[in-house]
Amino acid sequence: xxxxxxxxxxxxxxxxxxxxxxxxxxxxxxxxxxxxxxxxxxxxxxxxxxxxxxxxxxxxxxxxxxxxxxxxxxxxxxxxxxxxxxxxxxxx
Length: 92
Fold this sequence. Notes:
single chain, TATA-Binding Protein, UCP028291
């Protein structure tokens, strides 16, 4: 299992987590509350956690070649919801 992790500083983490989960809930297996989410996507599984200061994103996939695309998909979607602020994603 290949994993990737990012902590994105934002005071709106819970809002973005919920928007993302609701956005994908109609297509993919999704569970969420205001503080955590699990989304099963074709590229792998995304787990998100929200605090007052940051959105934590943990991705896991079976295929290392898919990881850059998986990260890009998450970044594009979160940035779409966060159009009023600039977010920084540092993947490890």
